[in-house]
Design brief:
Length: about 300
């Protein structure tokens, strides 16, 4: 079955202005697979198992035009002989619109393009029922792989860690990865979920997913106390960037050899470095940085981050 043997923990050190060298650990989930990368692999693992167990014909899921989740699903379906359907936001798009969609198509994914208005209904029961009747024997996975199976797959990110950390830093889009990690922590660890989207709706999303896993209101609240939601590192919103973001990704790559991209993991680096500067994370505290992958999506930024071309 799916195997995370290529992931490992790397010790790194980077210079932080006004502070000096700062050392922490990175979980290299970006190394799991070049296409089914990082947390997308974690979130697909038990969804694939479920689809196989159900004897489903395939997997149907949802995503935006550059979605790391869509391409990961297309590749996983290809590897495990499951058909895949990708419902894509934006009716003006087509399979040749960009490299992500082109690759999905090549891997055999059937792409269905829908309007932004229709896409907004993606969590509604009636909307899902329509897709279910159109593709009756498909396992339907929500956008980003953010369901119970996705979250429990992310609990396993921490199985590589052989010690207790004071702080864990992770990017959050749907919050499923952060919820999975949070549910696997012990007392004394703080999980910093760095929102790559504007707003603070993620707190509720993470609470909901914790509830799926833990099932008990009081226990959920206990775990929620370990959550630090960072809502100030999104650089203006999803996909938004600034020159200083690229600058810190470039110097981090030079210092450590760890490649990051500006949509998710680069923003987490920024959040961590700012927290160290503000002394919210102390130099003698232990930090685990979760590299959730996503490097294929970063390839839109080759002009600013040329090293991404070689990965
Ligand atoms: C999709 C993605 C995320 C967001 O994960 P969620 O579980 O949706 O919060 C984080 N990092 C990378 C690299 C991603 O591709």
């Amino acid at each position: 079955m799916l195997d995370d043997q290529n992931s490992y923990i790397q010790k790194v050190q980077c210079k932080i202005e006004g502070i000096g060298p700062f050392a922490f650990d990175v979980v290299r989930d970006d190394r799991i697979d070049p296409v089914i990368s990082g947390n997308k692999w974690r979130k697909l693992k038990y969804n694939i198992e479920k689809a196989i167990q159900n004897k489903n014909e395939g997997i149907l899921t949802f995503g935006g035009a550059y979605s790391n989740h869509l391409i990961a699903t297309a590749q996983a379906g290809y590897n495990y002989s499951l058909k895949t359907v990708g419902v894509v936001r934006g009716e003006e798009l087509h399979p040749e619109s960009n490299h992500t969609l082109r690759s999905c198509k090549k891997l055999g994914m059937e792409l269905v393009f829908i309007s932004r208005e229709a896409y907004r209904r993606r969590k509604e029961k009636s909307f899902l029922a329509d897709w279910h009747s159109r593709f009756p024997n498909y396992w339907i996975v929500p956008e980003g792989g953010a369901n119970f199976y996705g979250a429990i797959g992310c609990q396993e990110i921490l199985t590589l860690a052989d010690r207790h950390y004071d702080h864990i830093y992770v990017a959050a889009g749907t919050g499923a990865t952060a919820a999975g990690i949070l549910s696997a922590t012990q007392r004394g660890t703080r999980v910093h979920a760095v929102s790559v989207l504007k707003g603070d709706f993620l707190r509720e999303e993470i609470r909901k997913m914790l509830w799926y896993m833990l099932g008990e209101e009081d226990v959920v609240e206990l775990y929620m106390q370990r959550l630090e939601l960072d809502t100030t590192s999104h650089f203006g919103g999803y996909g938004q960037t600034k020159p200083e973001l690229f600058e810190s990704i470039r110097s981090f790559y030079e210092e450590t050899g760890v490649p990051l991209e500006p949509i998710y993991t680069g923003k987490v680096l920024h959040a961590l470095q700012s927290a160290v500067v503000r002394e919210q994370v102390e130099r003698d505290e232990s930090v685990l940085f979760v590299h959730t992958g996503g490097l294929q999506g970063g390839k839109t930024f080759l002009a600013e981050l040329p090293f991404l071309a070689d990965l």
